[in-house]
Structures are given as structure tokens and as C-alpha cells.
Amino acid sequence: PAAVIVAIDGPSGTGKSSTSKAVATQLGLSYLDTGAQYRAITWWMLNNNIDVHDAMEVATAAAKPVIVSGTDPTRPTITVDGEDASGPIRTQEVTSKVSAVSAVPEVRTRITELQRTIAAGAERGIVVEGRDIGTTVLPDADIKIFLTASPEARAARRSGEVKGSDLAATKEALIKRDAADSGRKTSPLAKADDAVEVDTTELTLQQVIECVVTLVGEKQ
Ligand code: C5P
User: Fold this and answer.
1) What is the mean pLDDT of each run of 10 residues along the chain (220 residues)?
2) Could you say which residues bind ATP here (predicted)?
3) Is residue 25 exposed (0-12), middle (13-18) or buried (19+ Cβ within 10 Å)?
């Protein structure tokens, strides 16, 4: 069978990562977490004393770090200049700075190229999760899913993931990040016209996974 390309987009806390990994595992497909790549480049910028709010400085540095993503959905990995970055890219510091870095066009061009190369090399197909996969990175994807959920549900899920985090603060940070991601000029967070929107507010993770697996099955 031809390689199937599945694009899963949506704001934070909608269950994108858990869903994408499970769907890829069940269907024997590769998996790419594009948010991890933007986090990785942000982590590199912070380590190299780049002022992340200076778009010129970020643009100039954008080509420097070597970012390599593993595509096994059962053990996703990411390295920056050969160093394992899986842990450090999840810190609050990176989370609070990533939207500024990902809004810079030179960063997006660089990371988008990487994503297209990885998708083209996935022989059996791939599940790619992000914000602009269906609209910009892989507009010809076979299946496009746009996950949504109420801000309350999203904040509750995120706070459940991060130990000792405060629900109200989590909700505020999440809304701020989504607003920045949706409001940027270059390929903002958006639903593609031909994407299927799934509101996960009242669904369990298992139900969302089943829903996506069914949609992929219908297209194959
Ligand atoms: O999905 P995750 O929360 O790890 O994404 C981190 C950040 O990376 C997002 O808030 C957004 O700024 C950026 N991102 C993006 N385009 C994507 C995926 C993530 O701009 N396709």
C-alpha cells in the first residue's frame, strides 16, 4: 500500500501527542512531533545566549543547530547537535519562549524543510502532529484532523501532566501561547478547510484514538 500521511493539528492540551503516538503505533506508521522541533531550536537559542525576542538575531541563528528527530512512536527522541534534548525541551522556560521563536519566518522555513524531508522518507507513512501541518507543511496529506477542546479541559490535562502546577496559571499560560500561535503572520495555528474537526472535551483518549484510526481506515 502507498504511504499514508496523517496530519494532526490543534492547540495545546487537546491530546495531539497522546493521540498521534497511539495512532501511529496501532497502524505501524512513523511519528513526528513538530512541536518538539520548535522547542529544540528554542532550547538551543537559550543555551547560546540568543535574545529570543530579537527576531533578527533569531533569524540569523536559525540555520545553526543540527536537529534530529527519531520517528519511532513508541520512543520519540530528539537531539540538538548530537545531544539528547528530550528532557530539557519540556521545561517551563522553553515553553514560555517557544512561541516567540516559532513566529520567526526563517525558523519556520528551516523546520518546515526538515519536516517535509522526514515525511517523504517514511516508507509506510507517518503521523505528523503540530499547528500548521495540514495548512502549510503537508497540504496534500491524506487525512487531516484538527483537535479542539475547551480551555478548561485543556488546562486540566496539562496541569495533570506537570507535577505541582497550578490550574489557573496553567490555563492562563496556555491561552497566551495559543493566542500567539494563532495570531502570528507566518503559518499560524489554523484548521485546514479540508480537515475533520474533533472536539475532545467530552471524549476519553481511547475514544479520540478510535475516531482517528477509523478516519484513517476510511481513506485507505
Ligand atoms: O506542541 P507543542 O506544545 O510542543 O508546541 C510547542 C510550540 O511550538 C507551539 O506553542 C508553537 O509555538 C510551536 N509550533 C509551531 N508549529 C508547529 C508545532 C509547534 O509553531 N507545527
Assistant:
1) 92 96 98 98 98 98 98 98 98 96 98 98 97 98 97 89 80 93 95 97 97 92
2) 10-18
3) middle
Q: What residues contact residue 85 under an 8 Å CB cut-off, 6+ apart?
A: 39, 40, 43, 78, 79
The residue whose C-alpha atom lies closest to atom 5 belonging to ligand 1 is 35
Domains, the chain, with CATH or none: 4-215 (3.40.50.300)
- How many whole angstroms from 4 Cα to the centroid of ligand 1? 23
Residue 60 has a pLDDT of 98
Among protein residues, the one whose CA lies closest to atom 14 of ligand 1: 35
Distance between Cα 135 and ligand 1 center (Å): 14
pTM recorded for the entire structure = 0.96
